[in-house]
Amino acid sequence: MISLYQLSIFIAVVDEGNFSAAAKKLHMTQPAISMQIKGLEDRYQTRLFERRGQRMVPTERAQALIAPARELLAVAAETEKAIAGPGSRELSGRLTLAVAVEGRMLPALLASFQRQHTAVSISATRQPEGEALGALRSGRADLALLGDAPTSKQFESIPLLEDELVPVVPTDHPWANADGGGSLRLGEIAMQLLVLPRAGSELRYAIEEALAERGLAREDLQPSLELDGMEDVALAVEAGAGLGFVSRSRVSTTAVAVVQPFGEGRAARPITIPLRAHLVRLRRASLSRVAAAFWHYSNAELELYSITRAVCSATARPSHFCTR
Fold first, then answer.
1. Tell me, what's the pLDDT at 245?
2. Domain identity same for 71 and 150
3. What sign does the CA torsion over 210, 215, 218, 221 have?
4. Are residues 64 and 136 in the same domain?
5. Does 171 share its domain with 133?
């Protein structure tokens, strides 16, 4: 999903003409700007800029994105003004989040929100899903970030992420081919050095379930390294620690290769594990001004994704920006 944060970086590069000037304008580092643009290019398999001397010039595909991007950013700014109300003071206070999912999406969303509201402080505490819901009920958390939306009607949720976990190896691994991906026999996974999320975590359970459905029992998995989060797993695999599972969106910014089983029957089914995230609130509770602003900001990100898909599907020319 392309975000308002990424669109603002894209437009800054368009307006300023290079990464360095865009970084100064946004009070970011040049590598951070480069990484965001490269992430967009890798995700949608298209070039956005071409270097001409000291300037970064938008490609034809990027030119088609400029007008819709400006319009969406303007709509987001007007939406914020409408929510805040006329003559409202600067948004300030504390936002408390109970987090029960892994992924890069939340830090990026929080950073984008806080960049616009510098007087807001944010506390995000990782905890099991049951505890996160308990924190909402007791008022210890303003909002929660969960994998699946709660079924109880006492909660309201916004879907923020649709991704998937895939098996990866270091790029110099024998299973990685020149195209950045390779194949394996499912039974060989158990004989590899495995890098997995810690036992008892929801990610670990999801991985074990997916492999068990394909005939690889939990007891056959003997990880050589167990880590707390998916980010740590990705970095460990990149460093050569073994085979692990990371989000597909993370693959484009990490030196790893996706591998998939081959053979016959259920053992040859591709290993893709759904990875979802929902922002959740207690329906009957009144949100603080800060929590309400973040809720609406997150909902605007979802609307941006929906509008972008609608705009692209309505154009005669197909766009990679609508493929995910």
1. 92
2. no
3. negative
4. no
5. no
